[in-house]
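#struct-queue
[09:14] JT: dropping the first one here, sequence first, then the structure tokens:
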Amino acid sequence: MAFGYQILGFGGGETPRDPYSCDWLVVAGGGNGNSYPSGGGGGGAGGLRVSYGTASGGGGSIEPNITLAPGTVYTVQVGAGATSTNSGGNTSEDSFISGGTLVTADQTSAGGGRGANGGGVPNVGGSGGGAGYNGIGAAGTANQGYAGGRGNGDPGPNPGAGGGGAANTGVQASGQNAGGGGQGLATNITGSSVTLAGGGGGGAANSTFGGGAGTGGGGTGGGDPQNNSTSGQANTGSGGGGGGNDTGDVGKGGSGIVRIRFNTDLGAGYATTGTTSVGIDGTDTIVTWTGDGTFSP
């Protein structure tokens, strides 16, 4: 009798998953304030770019989504805020998502600009640094943030202007009053409203109190004789406050933040490295980086 045999096939591995669309938020590190020889300008916020909601930084429209390809490792950089011990300071860092077919420049936000010292020039950035007593605020970057505020034009030991924020320009110094930091932008990529990227307030050379902090984490400006400036809050991309005198540190910039949002079912099986947290909003997953890392769809 003849016997028939059936050859059983075995799976050849997992079925490749298709690329899927992803929303994103990238906020760069904030700029530091400045001081010597008189009230210094506040630091500008790091650039804010987002594809989710109604607006991006600097009055720009929301950005296009990105497409993630399973099997590709994407690099995430969370920019550090700028630091300073007085009128110097390092440069704030950009934040970005890069890898695969993404064009790095299309997902990069620029670090915030440093505020000016008394008669110096502030730095351009995602949002621009505030002017000292005699100058104009530095420009922000299109679709990321606004310019820093102007000085009051008086060559005496007068106050600095606020650094620019993601939602508006830093406030101009007036008389003996330092300018406040530009306001941060409310974002809802997490499903709740979170304000980020506020400018730092200017320092006041002849007043106890400096300029107010921009909403979203900006630092307050310092006064004189007590230099009580504060730094931008960590992981908000906010600028640090300007100093009222040359005897102490000025406000440092806050570090940035990166978030992505994608359909939970489509993005199942992902892996991350770095300092991350994960949230759920309806059918979507939101991954947040507060330090450098990677994402593997």
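[09:21] JT: and here's the second one, same format:
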Amino acid sequence: MNERIGTNGFAVVDCETTGLSASSDRMVEIAVILVDADGVPEGEWTHLINPGRPVDATFIHGLTDDDVALAPPFSALLSQVVDRLHGRAVVAHNARFDVAFLNAAFGRAHYPFDIPADACVCTMELSKIYLPPGRHSLVEATRRAGIPLHHHHRALDDAWACAHLLRHYLQAEASGTRYAESALTRE
């Protein structure tokens, strides 16, 4: 397998969590959609995760303590996650959020891996270039791109929406369709 990041296409990731802090909260669900360099889907994988603490954010994603009680901890899924990310650029909508949770989970599992920022593609940031002006949430970006989003805040549905956004952006770039030359980000 080629060791260079991103040479095998993309791994589109979405994580549902117990809260917003990667250092103190945990993942409760993860999905990875594998796509090739043109954005064509190659496979999907999703799993519930037992966070080892109360879910707390049920009001966002609908997952309860009972839903994840029998799920494995992230450490038991580690090799499956790493296998799917290996050699691919990681894509997410608000990549900083998802990658922070992944990197924190790798650290807690004592796995010597950290997803570097330059190995990530953020479809939220790219919406500022490849979509008409508007809000940049996943709901609003998919709406403007004409992509259906059925069960927002469930990892697999959000990952698929993000994968479709990525393909939309790749096609827009190929056709020279841009609404801005760069994404101006407020820090």
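[09:30] RK: nice, looked through the second one.
[09:31] RK: Confidence is low (pLDDT under 50) at residues 1-5.
[09:31] JT: good to know. Residues 155-175 form the longest helix (21 residues).
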